[in-house]
Amino acid sequence: MDTTRYAGGCFCGAVRYEAFGAPRTLCYCHCESCRRAAGSPAVAWATFDRSGFRVTHGALAEFRSSPPVTRGFCAACGSCLTYCHEARPGEIDVTLATLEEAARLAPQMHVWVADKLPWVRIEDGLPQFPESAAGGANGTLP
Ligand SMILES: [Zn+2]
Ligand SMILES: [Zn+2]
After folding, report:
1. Alpha helices in 54-126 (DSSP H)
2. Is the pLDDT confidence value at 135 over 70?
């Protein structure tokens, strides 16, 4: 078992979390739900085993952004922190930029490119998927 520990938290420090084991997937999501949730043209996600994830300080506020999707955020500062999809009960996505290890966890693909804003230019050579990637990176639906 991979016991590598990752840790992260929100902007203000009220919510802290940890995750054990290597991220399964690192991606940019361009879907409209992620864009609106984060107020950002795309959101980078790291997918972990849900069994290895826990909140270590404070509590996640939750918002159901579509029937199968629950997004977790900090109620004090608004940082977007987590994404859980009912079709992937064993996984949790965390916003890559809230991880302390963000600098060495580069995204590997772009998903939901069909939804992307027209002025976002993808020129990094990474694989692009019109919707979710095979294997379910960041949701089967936004
Ligand atoms: Zn906060
Ligand atoms: Zn998304």
Report:
1. none
2. no
Ligand number nearest CA of 9 is: 1
Q: What separation in Å is there between the alpha carbon of 80 and the centre of ligand 1?
A: 9
Model pTM score: 0.92
The residue assigned the tokens 């826990």 is 54
Distances (CA, A) of 142 to 34, 36, 55: 7, 11, 24
Ligand number nearest to the C-alpha of 142: 2
Ligand nearest to the backbone CA of 77: 1
Rounded to whole angstroms, what are the CA distances from 74 to 2, 38, 96, 98? 28, 12, 15, 12
Cβ(92)–Cβ(50) below 8 Å: yes
